[in-house]
Structures are given as structure tokens and as C-alpha cells.
# Entry
Amino acid sequence: MSDAEEPIPQSDLPARFAMGVLMIGVALVATIWGGWWFRALVAAAVAIMLVEWADMHKVPRRWAYVAAALTAATLLGAAEYLYATGEQVDEVPEELTAALFDPNWLGFAAFAVPALIAGLLSRRPAMAWGVLYIGIPSFALLSLSWAWETLVLWVFAVTWATDILAYFAGRAIGGPKLAPGISPNKTWAGLIGGMVGAGLFGWLVATWFEMEPIFLWAGALMGAIAQAGDLYESWVKRRAGVKDSGTMLPGHGGVLDRLDGLLAVAIATTLLLMAGLWTG
# Structure
């Protein structure tokens, strides 16, 4: 997510809106189709985000491409080894248990290998961290898709609602700044508006799909976590001296700008499931 409350030039609004609709449509179709369609989309996003991360940290492109390829390969290989597409859980929520996600610990640990290689080759500790920061939440998202694609839809809903409602609340209400030293355009009104939006849409999705009770009420918390993820990436960009992580998405900046909040919500939701806190 780029600075969601930053004023957007009127001429950029149509491109921003069209690109937003396209991204949502692609994400929803891939989620519904599931399997390798969804995994390929996530792997491609991971590779692009790592190249953007490398560019922010002035890492030569050759090492950026190596890190991106290794991380995407680790993502797909670990996902297939631990959560084979041919063994995907049926769409029955009652079959979900905390133990179902136990393999995640091994999957998370697998990213230590590409992280170490990326850090050593580039001579940038930041690249090692980038592999973990992007790879682990992305693997978590694949585990959610394997267990029940509705979990991914819920994660998408609360993240997108946070982004949209934070923008409109911040623009309409304004008021005190949330973290002026990190992201001067974000306000407390935007934070609260995003949490309210996430809570509402999280509740709607959970009600529609008859999800466990915690998903009825966890949306607002995930809205706060999404904005924390956004602020973290804003802090990284400020340190790197860049406005956006990239220019690939017209009106939105880079792919990492769009998915920073999603990374935070994906890992938080997965940890909630792994802890068994989702059970009624």
C-alpha cells in the first residue's frame, strides 16, 4: 500500500481506479481457481516485490534476479512438498484444525536458505531480510489457500477494505497525523476508518461463508495490522529515499506498495490459525 491518504492528481484517478479493479479481479479469479493458478500468481508477485526491494536498497539487478528466482522457487517447492495441490482439503470448515497448519514452521524455515544466499551474494543484510519479509507471509497465504480458499477471500476483504476506507476517511476527516515522521499523509481518522471498514467487511465475509466466530470480530484488528504493515514499508522507503517501491502499477506505485498490508494480514491470520485461536 502506498500512502493511502496522499492526495491523488485528478488525472491519475481513472488509471488508479482501472488498475485497482483489474488487480482485484485477477486476485479473485486466481483465488477461486486455486491450485497452481493461485500459486503462480503469488510466486510472480513475490519475484517482482523482491526486485523492487533490491532496487530500493541499491542492489545490482543480477543479484536481485537471483534472489527473486530462489525465493519464488523455494515458495513453490515448499508449498508443494508440504501442501500438495493434489491433497487439498475439501471446502468443509469443520475439517480445519490447528494441526493442519503445523507444516508451516518447516515452510517458514525453508526461506532461511535463499535469505542467506541473497544476503551473501549481494553483500546486503537487507536482502536477506527482504527474502524473509516477503517470502514467509507469501508462503502463509498459500497454506491458507490450500486449507480453504475462503480464508484468502477473508484476508483480501479486510485488507482491501482497510486500504479504501482509510483513504476516504483520511481525506474526508483529516485531523491529527498518525506518524508524521514516517508517512506524513496518514491520519488517525484514516486508521480508525480503515479498522471500521475491515471490521465490517470481515464480518460480512465471515457471515456469508459461515466462518468460525473469531472471523466475525477479528477484521478490525487485522485492519490495524494492515496499516502497521503499510507504515513499516513507508519507513523502509523513507530510509531508502524513495517515494514508491516501483512504477509497475499506474496510479499505485510498485507491487510491494500494494501488497505491504496484505503481507502483514496474511501472516497474522495464519499465526492465529496455527495457535488454534480460531476455534469456536
Observations:
- The first helix runs from residue 13 to 33.
- The chain has a mean pLDDT of 89.
